[in-house]
Amino acid sequence: MQLNIITPDTTIYSGEVSLVQLPGIDGLFEILPKHAFLIAALGKGKIKVEIDGKNEFFEINGGVIEVLNDKISVLAE
């Protein structure tokens, strides 16, 4: 899957991932390959990204996610 995490100032991450865990408004949720179309609001917390079997974390203060055709776009604060 292709993931882009973008803030108003910069692109935090852009690349291939195998799993993304996000802080939704009502709790954590995960995106895996072949996920259905989704648009959701994000709360404050950490985005967990699995890259080649290793986890990386990105702190956000909220935002919006769009998932479409194995492309994930996160517009974060």
Describe the structure.
This protein is an all-beta fold and 77 residues long. Helix content is 0%, strand content 74%. The chain has a single domain (2-76), classed as Sandwich (ATP Synthase, domain 1), CATH 2.60.15. Strand 5 (38-51) and strand 6 (54-68) form a beta hairpin.
Topology:
Layout lengths: L1 E5 L4 E6 L2 E6 L2 E5 L6 E14 L2 E15 L2 E6 L1
Parallel strand pairs: 1-7
Antiparallel strand pairs: 1-2, 3-4, 3-5, 5-6, 6-7
Kindly estimate the percentage of residues that lie in beta strands according to DSSP: over 45%
Spatial arrangement of strands, main beta sheet = 2-1-7-6-5-3-4
Mind describing the biggest β-sheet?
A: 7 strands, mixed
Question: What is the CATH superfamily classification?
Answer: F0F1 ATP synthase delta/epsilon subunit, N-terminal
In short:
The chain has about 80 residues and is mainly beta.
Considering the chains and any ligands shown, give keywords for the structure:
77 residues, mainly beta, ATP Synthase, domain 1, 7-stranded mixed sheet, 0% helix, 74% strand
